[in-house]
Amino acid sequence: MKISIDRLKIERKIELEYQDSQFQDKGLREHTLGPLNIKVNITLVGNENVRLVGEIEGEFELVCDRCCENFLQHKIIKVDTIFEIEKNELENRVIYIDSKIKDMVLTDFPMKTLCSDNCKGICLKCGVNLNKEKCKCIDK
Ligand SMILES: [Zn+2]
Ligand SMILES: [Zn+2]
User: Fold this and answer.
1) Ion ligand 2 — residues with CB under 5 Å?
2) pLDDT for the residue 138
3) Given this model, what pLDDT does residue 139 score?
4) Which in 20, 72, 81, 137 has the greatest CB count within 10 A?
């Protein structure tokens, strides 16, 4: 998704509503099953910045850092961020929205992704997933 800077200067505020498939790549740690639903307003702030306000919604398929199981997380990320217009954007007279969406999604994820706050993880001795089974190591 690209937005013309000249159009933005005239309209001041542009409402965007579209689907974004950049996170459907399974190679990403944070990948989605379907496209992201993007609903954001973009406005100019001075001559050198743009502000993006709105919501990014998607169904992320993640791997728990504690038990290593895949799990789904439906996320609605509320955003309100100001970006400096980059040099190549100024040269091309367009704002590249996709890279900004990517930044906002990635910064919303914690360093560790957990399937649940009280995930019990894996037994370090026998490798059993302690959310699913009780292992014998603990009983002893
Ligand atoms: Zn887990
Ligand atoms: Zn065990």
Assistant:
1) 123, 125-126, 135, 137
2) 61
3) 58
4) 20
Distance 132 CA to ligand 1 centre (A): 10
- For position 96, what pLDDT does the model report? 97
CA of 45 to the centre of ligand 2 (A): 57
| Consecutive 10-residue averages of pLDDT for the chain (140 residues) | 95 97 95 97 94 98 95 97 96 96 95 94 93 80
State the distance from the centre of ligand 1 to the C-alpha of 124, rounded, in angstroms.
14
DSSP string, the chain: -EEEHHHHHHHSEEEEEEEE-GGG-TTSSSEESSPEEEEEEEEEETTTEEEEEEEEEEEEEEE-TTT--EEEEEEEEEEEEEEEPPHHHHHHTEEEHHHHHHHHHHHHS-SS--SSTT---B-TTT--BTTT---HHHH-
Domain boundaries, the chain: 2-139
At 131 the pLDDT is 95
Bridge partners of 83, per DSSP, are 50
